[in-house]
Design goal:
The protein is α+β, with helices and mostly antiparallel strands. It has two domains: about 200 residues, no CATH class; about 270 residues, Alpha/alpha barrel (Glycosyltransferase). It has 18 helices and 17 strands. Helix 5 crosses helix 17, helix 7 packs parallel to helix 9 and helix 12 runs antiparallel to helix 13. The N and C termini lie far apart (about 50 Å). Keywords: Signal.
Protein backbone atom coordinates (compact mmCIF):
# COMPACT_ATOMS: atom_id res chain seq x y z
CA UNK A 1 0.00 0.00 0.00
CA UNK A 2 1.39 3.41 -0.89
CA UNK A 3 2.16 6.03 1.70
CA UNK A 4 -0.52 8.31 0.26
CA UNK A 5 -3.16 5.67 0.53
CA UNK A 6 -2.22 5.12 4.18
CA UNK A 7 -2.50 8.83 4.83
CA UNK A 8 -5.91 8.88 3.15
CA UNK A 9 -7.06 5.95 5.28
CA UNK A 10 -5.86 7.67 8.44
CA UNK A 11 -7.80 10.74 7.39
CA UNK A 12 -10.96 8.75 6.74
CA UNK A 13 -10.65 7.05 10.11
CA UNK A 14 -9.93 10.39 11.71
CA UNK A 15 -13.42 10.86 13.13
CA UNK A 16 -13.56 7.43 14.75
CA UNK A 17 -10.07 7.91 16.19
CA UNK A 18 -11.06 11.26 17.62
CA UNK A 19 -14.08 9.69 19.33
CA UNK A 20 -12.29 6.70 20.81
CA UNK A 21 -8.62 7.49 21.26
CA UNK A 22 -5.98 4.79 21.02
CA UNK A 23 -5.74 3.82 24.69
CA UNK A 24 -2.02 3.15 24.43
CA UNK A 25 -1.53 6.85 23.69
CA UNK A 26 -4.32 7.96 26.01
CA UNK A 27 -2.81 6.06 28.96
CA UNK A 28 0.43 8.01 28.66
CA UNK A 29 -0.96 11.49 29.11
CA UNK A 30 -2.83 13.35 31.83
CA UNK A 31 -6.59 13.95 31.49
CA UNK A 32 -9.14 16.10 33.30
CA UNK A 33 -10.64 16.23 35.86
CA UNK A 34 -7.85 16.14 38.48
CA UNK A 35 -8.15 13.90 41.55
CA UNK A 36 -8.26 16.94 43.91
CA UNK A 37 -5.63 15.22 46.08
CA UNK A 38 -2.07 16.50 46.56
CA UNK A 39 -0.76 14.30 43.75
CA UNK A 40 -3.12 15.78 41.16
CA UNK A 41 -3.85 12.39 39.63
CA UNK A 42 -5.33 12.13 36.15
CA UNK A 43 -8.69 10.67 35.16
CA UNK A 44 -8.05 7.64 32.94
CA UNK A 45 -11.34 5.99 32.05
CA UNK A 46 -12.43 6.11 28.42
CA UNK A 47 -15.77 7.75 27.58
CA UNK A 48 -18.70 5.37 28.23
CA UNK A 49 -19.27 4.92 24.50
CA UNK A 50 -15.66 3.76 24.07
CA UNK A 51 -15.65 1.19 26.88
CA UNK A 52 -15.27 -2.39 25.73
CA UNK A 53 -17.68 -3.78 28.35
CA UNK A 54 -20.00 -1.80 30.57
CA UNK A 55 -19.30 -2.50 34.21
CA UNK A 56 -21.96 -0.85 36.29
CA UNK A 57 -20.02 -1.03 39.57
CA UNK A 58 -19.08 2.66 39.58
CA UNK A 59 -22.38 3.85 38.10
CA UNK A 60 -25.05 1.87 39.95
CA UNK A 61 -24.06 2.75 43.51
CA UNK A 62 -22.17 -0.52 44.20
CA UNK A 63 -18.96 1.38 44.87
CA UNK A 64 -20.47 4.09 47.09
CA UNK A 65 -19.66 2.38 50.37
CA UNK A 66 -16.01 2.10 49.33
CA UNK A 67 -15.96 5.75 48.30
CA UNK A 68 -17.33 6.84 51.67
CA UNK A 69 -14.84 4.63 53.50
CA UNK A 70 -11.92 6.52 51.94
CA UNK A 71 -10.56 9.93 52.77
CA UNK A 72 -7.67 10.13 50.31
CA UNK A 73 -8.80 11.41 46.91
CA UNK A 74 -5.66 10.14 45.21
CA UNK A 75 -6.31 6.63 46.47
CA UNK A 76 -9.91 6.79 45.30
CA UNK A 77 -8.91 8.09 41.88
CA UNK A 78 -6.32 5.37 41.39
CA UNK A 79 -8.99 2.80 42.27
CA UNK A 80 -11.55 4.40 39.96
CA UNK A 81 -9.08 4.43 37.06
CA UNK A 82 -7.57 1.02 37.54
CA UNK A 83 -10.26 -1.39 38.68
CA UNK A 84 -12.44 -1.26 35.55
CA UNK A 85 -9.44 -1.07 33.21
CA UNK A 86 -9.77 -4.57 31.75
CA UNK A 87 -13.48 -4.19 31.10
CA UNK A 88 -13.08 -0.60 29.91
CA UNK A 89 -10.27 -1.30 27.47
CA UNK A 90 -9.23 -4.92 26.97
CA UNK A 91 -12.28 -6.91 25.83
CA UNK A 92 -11.32 -6.92 22.17
CA UNK A 93 -14.12 -9.20 21.01
CA UNK A 94 -17.03 -11.17 22.41
CA UNK A 95 -19.14 -13.54 20.33
CA UNK A 96 -19.95 -17.16 19.62
CA UNK A 97 -18.19 -20.15 18.12
CA UNK A 98 -18.97 -20.66 14.44
CA UNK A 99 -19.83 -24.34 14.87
CA UNK A 100 -21.80 -24.02 18.10
CA UNK A 101 -24.14 -21.04 18.38
CA UNK A 102 -24.37 -20.96 22.18
CA UNK A 103 -20.63 -21.38 22.86
CA UNK A 104 -19.56 -17.96 24.14
CA UNK A 105 -16.07 -16.75 23.29
CA UNK A 106 -14.24 -13.77 24.84
CA UNK A 107 -10.98 -12.49 23.44
CA UNK A 108 -9.13 -10.35 25.98
CA UNK A 109 -5.90 -8.55 25.18
CA UNK A 110 -3.23 -7.84 27.80
CA UNK A 111 -3.52 -4.12 27.09
CA UNK A 112 -0.63 -2.76 25.08
CA UNK A 113 0.12 -6.17 23.51
CA UNK A 114 -2.54 -7.25 21.06
CA UNK A 115 -2.80 -10.90 22.07
CA UNK A 116 -4.46 -13.04 24.73
CA UNK A 117 -2.25 -14.68 27.34
CA UNK A 118 -3.63 -17.66 29.26
CA UNK A 119 -2.18 -16.34 32.51
CA UNK A 120 -3.15 -12.72 32.02
CA UNK A 121 -6.69 -13.45 30.88
CA UNK A 122 -7.38 -15.69 33.89
CA UNK A 123 -6.04 -13.03 36.20
CA UNK A 124 -7.72 -10.18 34.35
CA UNK A 125 -11.04 -11.92 35.04
CA UNK A 126 -10.03 -12.88 38.58
CA UNK A 127 -10.11 -9.20 39.58
CA UNK A 128 -13.87 -9.23 39.07
CA UNK A 129 -14.56 -12.39 41.06
CA UNK A 130 -16.00 -10.39 43.96
CA UNK A 131 -18.69 -9.16 41.52
CA UNK A 132 -19.37 -12.51 39.83
CA UNK A 133 -22.74 -14.23 40.31
CA UNK A 134 -24.51 -16.92 38.32
CA UNK A 135 -26.11 -15.32 35.28
CA UNK A 136 -27.01 -16.83 31.93
CA UNK A 137 -27.41 -13.46 30.18
CA UNK A 138 -25.04 -12.73 27.31
CA UNK A 139 -24.40 -9.23 28.70
CA UNK A 140 -23.31 -10.49 32.09
CA UNK A 141 -19.93 -10.74 33.72
CA UNK A 142 -20.58 -14.49 34.01
CA UNK A 143 -20.83 -14.65 30.23
CA UNK A 144 -17.43 -12.96 29.90
CA UNK A 145 -15.94 -15.59 32.20
CA UNK A 146 -17.52 -18.41 30.20
CA UNK A 147 -16.21 -16.89 27.00
CA UNK A 148 -12.66 -16.80 28.35
CA UNK A 149 -12.88 -20.39 29.59
CA UNK A 150 -14.24 -21.62 26.23
CA UNK A 151 -11.57 -19.81 24.26
CA UNK A 152 -8.79 -21.03 26.56
CA UNK A 153 -10.12 -24.57 26.11
CA UNK A 154 -9.88 -24.16 22.35
CA UNK A 155 -6.32 -22.85 22.57
CA UNK A 156 -5.21 -25.65 24.89
CA UNK A 157 -6.71 -28.35 22.69
CA UNK A 158 -4.42 -27.33 19.83
CA UNK A 159 -1.37 -25.83 21.56
CA UNK A 160 -1.05 -26.77 25.22
CA UNK A 161 2.61 -25.69 25.38
CA UNK A 162 1.97 -22.13 24.21
CA UNK A 163 1.43 -19.03 26.35
CA UNK A 164 -0.15 -16.34 24.15
CA UNK A 165 -2.75 -16.54 21.42
CA UNK A 166 -4.33 -14.82 18.44
CA UNK A 167 -7.95 -13.70 18.05
CA UNK A 168 -10.42 -16.50 17.21
CA UNK A 169 -11.26 -16.65 13.48
CA UNK A 170 -14.90 -15.83 14.27
CA UNK A 171 -13.85 -12.35 15.40
CA UNK A 172 -12.62 -11.36 11.94
CA UNK A 173 -9.69 -9.64 13.67
CA UNK A 174 -6.41 -10.23 11.84
CA UNK A 175 -3.68 -12.10 13.74
CA UNK A 176 -1.12 -9.76 15.30
CA UNK A 177 2.44 -9.88 14.02
CA UNK A 178 4.99 -10.96 16.57
CA UNK A 179 8.35 -10.09 15.03
CA UNK A 180 10.33 -11.45 17.99
CA UNK A 181 8.72 -14.88 17.51
CA UNK A 182 8.95 -15.06 13.74
CA UNK A 183 12.14 -17.13 13.75
CA UNK A 184 11.50 -19.18 16.88
CA UNK A 185 12.25 -22.88 16.53
CA UNK A 186 9.74 -24.69 18.72
CA UNK A 187 8.84 -28.32 19.31
CA UNK A 188 5.95 -29.20 19.14
CA UNK A 189 5.35 -26.92 16.16
CA UNK A 190 2.38 -24.59 16.13
CA UNK A 191 0.29 -22.51 13.78
CA UNK A 192 0.94 -18.77 13.98
CA UNK A 193 -2.64 -18.07 12.83
CA UNK A 194 -3.82 -19.06 16.32
CA UNK A 195 -0.65 -18.74 18.43
CA UNK A 196 1.08 -15.44 19.18
CA UNK A 197 3.97 -16.92 21.15
CA UNK A 198 4.80 -20.44 22.24
CA UNK A 199 6.73 -20.36 25.47
CA UNK A 200 5.92 -23.31 27.68
CA UNK A 201 5.02 -21.99 31.13
CA UNK A 202 3.54 -24.38 33.66
CA UNK A 203 1.43 -21.62 35.17
CA UNK A 204 -0.39 -21.10 31.84
CA UNK A 205 -1.87 -24.59 32.22
CA UNK A 206 -2.64 -23.92 35.88
CA UNK A 207 -4.37 -20.69 34.87
CA UNK A 208 -7.01 -22.65 32.96
CA UNK A 209 -7.71 -24.66 36.11
CA UNK A 210 -7.74 -21.42 38.09
CA UNK A 211 -10.38 -19.59 36.09
CA UNK A 212 -12.47 -22.77 35.81
CA UNK A 213 -12.41 -23.38 39.56
CA UNK A 214 -13.10 -19.74 40.33
CA UNK A 215 -16.06 -19.54 37.95
CA UNK A 216 -17.49 -22.74 39.37
CA UNK A 217 -16.91 -21.65 42.95
CA UNK A 218 -18.66 -18.33 42.45
CA UNK A 219 -21.60 -19.53 40.34
CA UNK A 220 -22.11 -23.23 41.10
CA UNK A 221 -22.72 -23.57 37.37
CA UNK A 222 -21.52 -27.16 36.87
CA UNK A 223 -23.68 -27.68 33.79
CA UNK A 224 -21.56 -25.19 31.82
CA UNK A 225 -18.53 -27.46 32.12
CA UNK A 226 -20.42 -30.34 30.54
CA UNK A 227 -21.21 -28.31 27.41
CA UNK A 228 -18.78 -27.40 24.62
CA UNK A 229 -15.13 -28.46 24.82
CA UNK A 230 -14.13 -27.96 28.44
CA UNK A 231 -14.02 -31.64 29.34
CA UNK A 232 -12.02 -32.46 26.22
CA UNK A 233 -9.58 -29.68 27.09
CA UNK A 234 -9.22 -30.82 30.70
CA UNK A 235 -8.53 -34.37 29.58
CA UNK A 236 -6.02 -33.09 27.05
CA UNK A 237 -4.28 -30.94 29.66
CA UNK A 238 -4.32 -33.85 32.06
CA UNK A 239 -2.58 -35.96 29.40
CA UNK A 240 0.08 -33.25 29.09
CA UNK A 241 0.61 -33.43 32.85
CA UNK A 242 0.91 -37.17 32.53
CA UNK A 243 3.62 -36.82 29.86
CA UNK A 244 5.42 -34.14 31.82
CA UNK A 245 5.29 -36.22 34.95
CA UNK A 246 7.66 -38.69 33.33
CA UNK A 247 9.78 -35.96 31.84
CA UNK A 248 13.50 -35.54 32.53
CA UNK A 249 16.59 -34.55 30.57
CA UNK A 250 18.09 -38.08 30.62
CA UNK A 251 16.40 -41.47 30.69
CA UNK A 252 17.39 -44.21 33.19
CA UNK A 253 20.26 -45.30 30.93
CA UNK A 254 21.66 -41.79 30.78
CA UNK A 255 20.52 -41.22 27.24
CA UNK A 256 19.14 -37.77 26.38
CA UNK A 257 15.37 -38.08 26.14
CA UNK A 258 13.29 -36.78 23.29
CA UNK A 259 12.04 -33.55 24.87
CA UNK A 260 8.33 -32.87 25.40
CA UNK A 261 9.09 -29.30 24.47
CA UNK A 262 12.04 -27.32 23.20
CA UNK A 263 12.49 -23.71 22.14
CA UNK A 264 15.16 -21.46 20.69
CA UNK A 265 14.95 -17.83 19.66
CA UNK A 266 17.51 -15.55 18.08
CA UNK A 267 17.89 -12.82 20.66
CA UNK A 268 20.50 -10.74 22.49
CA UNK A 269 18.67 -11.40 25.75
CA UNK A 270 19.71 -14.60 27.52
CA UNK A 271 16.26 -14.90 29.11
CA UNK A 272 14.54 -15.12 25.69
CA UNK A 273 15.92 -18.48 24.67
CA UNK A 274 16.72 -21.84 26.24
CA UNK A 275 20.16 -23.24 26.94
CA UNK A 276 21.37 -26.53 25.46
CA UNK A 277 19.91 -25.86 22.03
CA UNK A 278 16.40 -25.45 23.35
CA UNK A 279 16.24 -28.17 26.01
CA UNK A 280 16.88 -25.79 28.90
CA UNK A 281 19.16 -26.67 31.78
CA UNK A 282 19.08 -30.34 32.83
CA UNK A 283 16.48 -31.41 35.36
CA UNK A 284 16.21 -34.69 37.17
CA UNK A 285 12.99 -36.61 36.64
CA UNK A 286 10.73 -38.45 39.03
CA UNK A 287 10.82 -36.06 41.97
CA UNK A 288 7.16 -35.06 41.91
CA UNK A 289 7.75 -31.67 40.30
CA UNK A 290 6.85 -30.34 36.85
CA UNK A 291 9.31 -28.54 34.62
CA UNK A 292 8.55 -25.07 33.31
CA UNK A 293 10.72 -23.84 30.46
CA UNK A 294 9.68 -20.25 31.08
CA UNK A 295 8.51 -18.19 34.04
CA UNK A 296 5.30 -16.17 34.39
CA UNK A 297 7.41 -13.19 33.29
CA UNK A 298 7.94 -15.06 29.97
CA UNK A 299 11.65 -15.23 30.83
CA UNK A 300 13.51 -18.55 30.66
CA UNK A 301 13.90 -20.44 33.90
CA UNK A 302 17.42 -21.09 35.16
CA UNK A 303 16.40 -24.32 36.91
CA UNK A 304 13.28 -25.78 35.39
CA UNK A 305 11.45 -26.79 38.55
CA UNK A 306 9.86 -23.43 39.16
CA UNK A 307 8.47 -23.73 42.68
CA UNK A 308 5.74 -21.03 42.58
CA UNK A 309 4.25 -22.54 39.40
CA UNK A 310 4.29 -26.00 40.96
CA UNK A 311 2.57 -24.55 44.02
CA UNK A 312 -0.06 -22.95 41.83
CA UNK A 313 -0.63 -26.16 39.90
CA UNK A 314 -1.11 -28.16 43.11
CA UNK A 315 -3.53 -25.58 44.44
CA UNK A 316 -5.71 -25.43 41.32
CA UNK A 317 -5.68 -29.16 40.64
CA UNK A 318 -7.27 -29.45 44.07
CA UNK A 319 -9.66 -26.57 43.39
CA UNK A 320 -10.77 -27.84 39.97
CA UNK A 321 -11.30 -31.46 41.04
CA UNK A 322 -14.81 -30.78 42.46
CA UNK A 323 -15.97 -29.65 39.00
CA UNK A 324 -15.21 -33.12 37.68
CA UNK A 325 -17.24 -34.67 40.47
CA UNK A 326 -20.15 -32.32 39.78
CA UNK A 327 -20.28 -33.51 36.16
CA UNK A 328 -21.81 -36.78 37.42
CA UNK A 329 -20.04 -39.13 35.04
CA UNK A 330 -17.88 -41.91 36.36
CA UNK A 331 -14.94 -41.20 34.07
CA UNK A 332 -14.72 -37.59 35.25
CA UNK A 333 -15.03 -38.74 38.85
CA UNK A 334 -11.93 -40.91 38.34
CA UNK A 335 -10.02 -37.99 36.79
CA UNK A 336 -11.04 -35.91 39.79
CA UNK A 337 -9.40 -38.41 42.13
CA UNK A 338 -6.27 -38.44 39.95
CA UNK A 339 -6.10 -34.66 40.00
CA UNK A 340 -6.19 -34.59 43.78
CA UNK A 341 -3.57 -37.34 43.99
CA UNK A 342 -1.33 -35.47 41.59
CA UNK A 343 -1.65 -32.34 43.73
CA UNK A 344 -0.53 -34.34 46.76
CA UNK A 345 2.50 -35.64 44.87
CA UNK A 346 3.45 -32.10 43.84
CA UNK A 347 3.06 -30.85 47.40
CA UNK A 348 5.40 -33.61 48.57
CA UNK A 349 7.86 -32.74 45.80
CA UNK A 350 7.85 -29.10 46.88
CA UNK A 351 8.34 -29.92 50.53
CA UNK A 352 11.17 -32.39 49.76
CA UNK A 353 13.03 -30.57 47.01
CA UNK A 354 11.83 -26.97 47.04
CA UNK A 355 12.93 -25.98 50.55
CA UNK A 356 16.51 -24.99 51.27
CA UNK A 357 18.28 -23.49 54.28
CA UNK A 358 19.56 -19.93 53.94
CA UNK A 359 21.12 -18.11 56.90
CA UNK A 360 19.95 -20.90 59.18
CA UNK A 361 16.33 -20.57 58.07
CA UNK A 362 14.24 -22.92 55.96
CA UNK A 363 12.96 -21.05 52.90
CA UNK A 364 11.29 -21.92 49.61
CA UNK A 365 13.62 -21.71 46.64
CA UNK A 366 12.35 -19.99 43.49
CA UNK A 367 13.72 -22.75 41.27
CA UNK A 368 15.49 -26.07 41.74
CA UNK A 369 16.80 -28.70 39.31
CA UNK A 370 16.46 -31.87 41.38
CA UNK A 371 20.28 -32.22 41.47
CA UNK A 372 20.66 -29.99 44.51
CA UNK A 373 20.98 -26.60 42.82
CA UNK A 374 18.59 -23.88 43.91
CA UNK A 375 17.93 -20.32 42.81
CA UNK A 376 17.17 -17.97 45.71
CA UNK A 377 15.12 -15.06 44.42
CA UNK A 378 11.59 -14.02 43.62
CA UNK A 379 10.08 -12.37 40.57
CA UNK A 380 7.16 -9.96 40.75
CA UNK A 381 4.89 -11.87 38.39
CA UNK A 382 2.19 -14.09 39.86
CA UNK A 383 2.69 -16.95 40.60
CA UNK A 384 5.61 -15.79 42.74
CA UNK A 385 6.75 -17.14 46.08
CA UNK A 386 5.44 -13.98 47.75
CA UNK A 387 1.97 -14.64 46.31
CA UNK A 388 1.68 -18.27 47.53
CA UNK A 389 -0.96 -17.41 50.19
CA UNK A 390 -2.79 -15.17 47.71
CA UNK A 391 -3.39 -18.05 45.32
CA UNK A 392 -4.16 -20.31 48.23
CA UNK A 393 -1.26 -22.77 48.29
CA UNK A 394 -0.59 -22.16 51.96
CA UNK A 395 -1.53 -19.94 54.88
CA UNK A 396 0.36 -16.67 55.25
CA UNK A 397 1.30 -17.71 58.79
CA UNK A 398 3.18 -20.77 57.56
CA UNK A 399 6.67 -20.67 59.11
CA UNK A 400 8.59 -21.46 55.93
CA UNK A 401 6.54 -18.86 54.06
CA UNK A 402 7.27 -16.22 56.71
CA UNK A 403 11.00 -16.99 56.54
CA UNK A 404 10.86 -16.81 52.76
CA UNK A 405 8.93 -13.55 52.79
CA UNK A 406 11.43 -11.88 55.13
CA UNK A 407 14.25 -12.92 52.80
CA UNK A 408 12.46 -11.88 49.61
CA UNK A 409 11.64 -8.40 50.93
CA UNK A 410 15.29 -7.69 51.68
CA UNK A 411 18.62 -7.40 49.90
CA UNK A 412 18.79 -11.17 50.32
CA UNK A 413 16.62 -11.31 47.18
CA UNK A 414 18.77 -10.30 44.18
CA UNK A 415 15.65 -8.87 42.53
CA UNK A 416 14.46 -6.70 45.43
CA UNK A 417 14.76 -3.12 44.16
CA UNK A 418 15.00 -0.15 46.49
CA UNK A 419 14.87 3.57 45.95
CA UNK A 420 13.09 6.79 46.91
CA UNK A 421 10.22 6.26 44.43
CA UNK A 422 9.24 2.68 45.27
CA UNK A 423 10.86 -0.37 46.84
CA UNK A 424 9.53 -3.69 45.65
CA UNK A 425 10.40 -6.94 44.01
CA UNK A 426 11.18 -6.75 40.29
CA UNK A 427 12.74 -9.33 38.01
CA UNK A 428 14.98 -9.92 35.02
CA UNK A 429 12.18 -9.07 32.57
CA UNK A 430 12.81 -5.34 32.97
CA UNK A 431 16.05 -5.87 34.84
CA UNK A 432 17.76 -4.46 37.93
CA UNK A 433 16.61 -1.03 39.07
CA UNK A 434 12.98 -1.51 38.08
CA UNK A 435 10.50 -2.37 40.84
CA UNK A 436 7.08 -3.80 39.99
CA UNK A 437 4.03 -2.32 41.75
CA UNK A 438 2.34 -5.69 41.22
CA UNK A 439 4.72 -7.04 43.87
CA UNK A 440 3.72 -4.21 46.26
CA UNK A 441 0.08 -5.13 45.70
CA UNK A 442 0.83 -8.78 46.45
CA UNK A 443 2.74 -7.68 49.54
CA UNK A 444 -0.44 -5.96 50.77
CA UNK A 445 -2.68 -8.91 49.85
CA UNK A 446 -0.49 -11.25 51.90
CA UNK A 447 0.08 -8.99 54.93
CA UNK A 448 -1.72 -8.52 58.22
CA UNK A 449 0.60 -5.68 59.28
CA UNK A 450 -1.23 -2.33 59.12
CA UNK A 451 1.97 -0.27 58.97
CA UNK A 452 3.35 -2.32 56.12
CA UNK A 453 0.06 -2.12 54.22
CA UNK A 454 -0.22 1.68 54.63
CA UNK A 455 3.38 2.20 53.54
CA UNK A 456 2.94 0.08 50.43
CA UNK A 457 -0.33 1.78 49.49
CA UNK A 458 1.32 5.19 49.71
CA UNK A 459 4.24 4.03 47.56
CA UNK A 460 1.91 2.66 44.90
CA UNK A 461 -0.17 5.84 44.56
CA UNK A 462 2.99 7.98 44.68
CA UNK A 463 4.62 6.08 41.87
CA UNK A 464 2.09 6.28 39.03
CA UNK A 465 3.72 9.43 37.62
CA UNK A 466 0.38 11.23 38.35
CA UNK A 467 -1.37 9.00 35.79
CA UNK A 468 -3.25 6.88 38.34
CA UNK A 469 -2.74 3.60 36.51
CA UNK A 470 -0.62 0.68 37.67
CA UNK A 471 2.43 0.33 35.47
CA UNK A 472 4.47 -2.79 34.93
CA UNK A 473 7.74 -1.57 36.43
CA UNK A 474 9.17 1.73 37.64
CA UNK A 475 12.73 3.00 37.91
CA UNK A 476 13.10 3.18 41.70
CA UNK A 477 14.92 6.53 41.34
CA UNK A 478 12.75 8.16 38.65
CA UNK A 479 8.96 7.81 38.52
CA UNK A 480 8.79 9.17 34.95
CA UNK A 481 10.76 6.17 33.80
CA UNK A 482 8.26 3.32 33.79
CA UNK A 483 7.29 0.42 31.51
CA UNK A 484 3.92 -0.60 30.04
CA UNK A 485 1.54 2.34 30.44
CA UNK A 486 -1.41 0.03 29.70
CA UNK A 487 -0.97 -3.19 31.70
CA UNK A 488 -4.53 -4.34 32.26
CA UNK A 489 -3.87 -7.21 34.71
CA UNK A 490 -1.97 -5.08 37.25
CA UNK A 491 -4.74 -2.49 37.21
CA UNK A 492 -7.42 -5.04 37.98
CA UNK A 493 -5.26 -6.53 40.70
CA UNK A 494 -4.97 -3.13 42.39
CA UNK A 495 -8.77 -2.88 42.44
CA UNK A 496 -9.11 -6.42 43.74
CA UNK A 497 -6.74 -5.46 46.56
CA UNK A 498 -8.88 -2.42 47.45
CA UNK A 499 -11.95 -4.68 47.70
CA UNK A 500 -9.88 -7.05 49.86
CA UNK A 501 -8.86 -4.19 52.18
CA UNK A 502 -12.43 -2.98 52.31
CA UNK A 503 -13.45 -6.41 53.62
CA UNK A 504 -10.41 -7.02 55.81
CA UNK A 505 -8.87 -3.67 56.85
CA UNK A 506 -11.42 -0.95 56.24
CA UNK A 507 -9.76 1.43 58.73
CA UNK A 508 -6.68 1.58 56.49
CA UNK A 509 -8.73 2.81 53.54
CA UNK A 510 -9.93 5.63 55.80
CA UNK A 511 -6.40 6.99 56.23
CA UNK A 512 -4.84 9.70 54.16
CA UNK A 513 -1.52 8.88 52.58
CA UNK A 514 0.81 11.87 52.65
CA UNK A 515 2.92 12.22 49.55
CA UNK A 516 6.45 10.98 50.11
CA UNK A 517 9.55 12.94 49.17
CA UNK A 518 10.62 11.93 45.72
CA UNK A 519 13.71 12.64 43.75
C1 LIG B 1 -2.73 18.99 37.39
O1 LIG B 1 -1.97 18.53 36.27
C2 LIG B 1 -2.42 19.04 35.03
C3 LIG B 1 -1.64 18.36 33.92
O2 LIG B 1 -0.29 18.44 34.16
C4 LIG B 1 -2.26 20.54 35.01
O3 LIG B 1 -2.74 21.05 33.79
C5 LIG B 1 -3.05 21.13 36.17
O4 LIG B 1 -2.84 22.53 36.24
C6 LIG B 1 -2.62 20.50 37.48
N1 LIG B 1 -3.49 20.97 38.54
C7 LIG B 1 -3.03 21.27 39.75
C8 LIG B 1 -4.03 21.72 40.76
O5 LIG B 1 -1.84 21.22 40.01
C1 LIG C 1 -21.64 1.02 27.08
O1 LIG C 1 -22.63 2.01 27.31
C2 LIG C 1 -22.58 3.11 26.43
C3 LIG C 1 -23.68 4.10 26.79
O2 LIG C 1 -23.49 4.52 28.11
C4 LIG C 1 -22.77 2.66 25.00
O3 LIG C 1 -22.61 3.76 24.12
C5 LIG C 1 -21.72 1.61 24.67
O4 LIG C 1 -21.94 1.10 23.38
C6 LIG C 1 -21.75 0.46 25.68
N1 LIG C 1 -20.65 -0.44 25.40
C7 LIG C 1 -20.83 -1.74 25.22
C8 LIG C 1 -19.62 -2.54 24.93
O5 LIG C 1 -21.91 -2.28 25.29
C1 LIG D 1 -27.63 -10.77 34.69
O1 LIG D 1 -26.83 -9.85 34.01
C2 LIG D 1 -27.55 -8.83 33.33
C3 LIG D 1 -26.57 -8.03 32.51
O2 LIG D 1 -25.53 -7.55 33.31
C4 LIG D 1 -28.31 -7.99 34.34
O3 LIG D 1 -29.06 -7.01 33.67
C5 LIG D 1 -29.21 -8.89 35.16
O4 LIG D 1 -29.81 -8.15 36.18
C6 LIG D 1 -28.42 -10.05 35.76
N1 LIG D 1 -29.32 -10.98 36.38
C7 LIG D 1 -29.17 -11.40 37.63
C8 LIG D 1 -30.14 -12.40 38.12
O5 LIG D 1 -28.25 -11.01 38.34
C1 LIG E 1 3.00 -16.60 10.04
O1 LIG E 1 4.12 -17.22 9.42
C2 LIG E 1 4.18 -17.00 8.03
C3 LIG E 1 5.31 -17.83 7.49
O2 LIG E 1 6.48 -17.59 8.19
C4 LIG E 1 4.34 -15.50 7.77
O3 LIG E 1 4.35 -15.25 6.39
C5 LIG E 1 3.17 -14.75 8.41
O4 LIG E 1 3.37 -13.36 8.28
C6 LIG E 1 3.06 -15.10 9.87
N1 LIG E 1 1.85 -14.51 10.42
C7 LIG E 1 1.87 -13.68 11.48
C8 LIG E 1 0.56 -13.19 11.97
O5 LIG E 1 2.89 -13.35 12.03
C1 LIG F 1 -14.20 -20.60 46.87
O1 LIG F 1 -14.86 -19.66 47.69
C2 LIG F 1 -14.51 -19.75 49.06
C3 LIG F 1 -15.40 -18.79 49.84
O2 LIG F 1 -15.41 -17.54 49.22
C4 LIG F 1 -13.02 -19.45 49.21
O3 LIG F 1 -12.63 -19.59 50.54
C5 LIG F 1 -12.22 -20.41 48.33
O4 LIG F 1 -10.84 -20.07 48.38
C6 LIG F 1 -12.71 -20.33 46.92
N1 LIG F 1 -12.01 -21.29 46.08
C7 LIG F 1 -11.50 -20.95 44.89
C8 LIG F 1 -10.87 -22.02 44.11
O5 LIG F 1 -11.52 -19.81 44.47
C1 LIG G 1 -25.42 -33.85 39.04
O1 LIG G 1 -26.37 -34.48 39.88
C2 LIG G 1 -26.96 -33.60 40.85
C3 LIG G 1 -27.80 -34.44 41.79
O2 LIG G 1 -28.58 -35.35 41.07
C4 LIG G 1 -27.77 -32.54 40.13
O3 LIG G 1 -28.32 -31.64 41.06
C5 LIG G 1 -26.82 -31.78 39.18
O4 LIG G 1 -27.54 -30.83 38.43
C6 LIG G 1 -26.10 -32.73 38.26
N1 LIG G 1 -25.06 -31.98 37.55
C7 LIG G 1 -25.02 -31.89 36.23
C8 LIG G 1 -23.87 -31.12 35.65
O5 LIG G 1 -25.83 -32.41 35.51
C1 LIG H 1 5.11 -4.14 60.39
O1 LIG H 1 5.62 -3.42 59.28
C2 LIG H 1 6.52 -2.39 59.64
C3 LIG H 1 6.83 -1.59 58.37
O2 LIG H 1 7.16 -2.43 57.30
C4 LIG H 1 7.74 -2.99 60.29
O3 LIG H 1 8.64 -1.97 60.67
C5 LIG H 1 7.31 -3.77 61.53
O4 LIG H 1 8.41 -4.44 62.09
C6 LIG H 1 6.24 -4.79 61.16
N1 LIG H 1 5.71 -5.37 62.38
C7 LIG H 1 5.67 -6.67 62.57
C8 LIG H 1 5.04 -7.13 63.84
O5 LIG H 1 6.13 -7.45 61.75
C1 LIG I 1 13.61 10.17 34.23
O1 LIG I 1 13.02 9.39 33.22
C2 LIG I 1 12.54 10.16 32.12
C3 LIG I 1 11.78 9.20 31.20
O2 LIG I 1 12.59 8.11 30.83
C4 LIG I 1 13.71 10.85 31.44
O3 LIG I 1 13.23 11.62 30.37
C5 LIG I 1 14.42 11.73 32.45
O4 LIG I 1 15.57 12.28 31.87
C6 LIG I 1 14.81 10.92 33.68
N1 LIG I 1 15.32 11.82 34.70
C7 LIG I 1 16.52 11.68 35.24
C8 LIG I 1 16.88 12.64 36.32
O5 LIG I 1 17.27 10.79 34.91
Amino acid sequence: MSVNLLALLALLCGIAIAQCPDYLQYSQSWHYPPSSGPRNISYMRPEPACRTFNMSFFEDGSSDAIFYSMSDFDLWRTFLNSYPNTLDTAIRWKGYAADSPDEELTFIVTGDIDAMWLRDSSNQMQSYLPLLTANSSADSLASLFRGVINLQARYLLTSPYCNAFQPPVESGIAPAKNPSASQDVVFPTYDNASVFECKYELDSLASFLQISAQYYNATGDAAFFGKHHWLEAINHVYQVFNDLYFSSTYDVNGQVKQPDYSFTRVSDRATETLANDGLGNPFKGGIGLFRSAFRPSDDATIYQYLIPSNMMLARYLEAAAPIMVALNDSESAVTSVHMTQLATIIRQGIEEHGIVTVGGKRVYAYEVDGYGSANIMDDANIPSLLSAPFFGYLDANDDVYQNTRALLLSYGNPYFMQGPVISAIGGPHQGPGYAWPMASIVRILTSDNDTEISEQLALIIDSTNTLGLIHESINTFNSSDYTRPWFSWANGLFGQMILDLYARKRHILGQSFPQAQQS
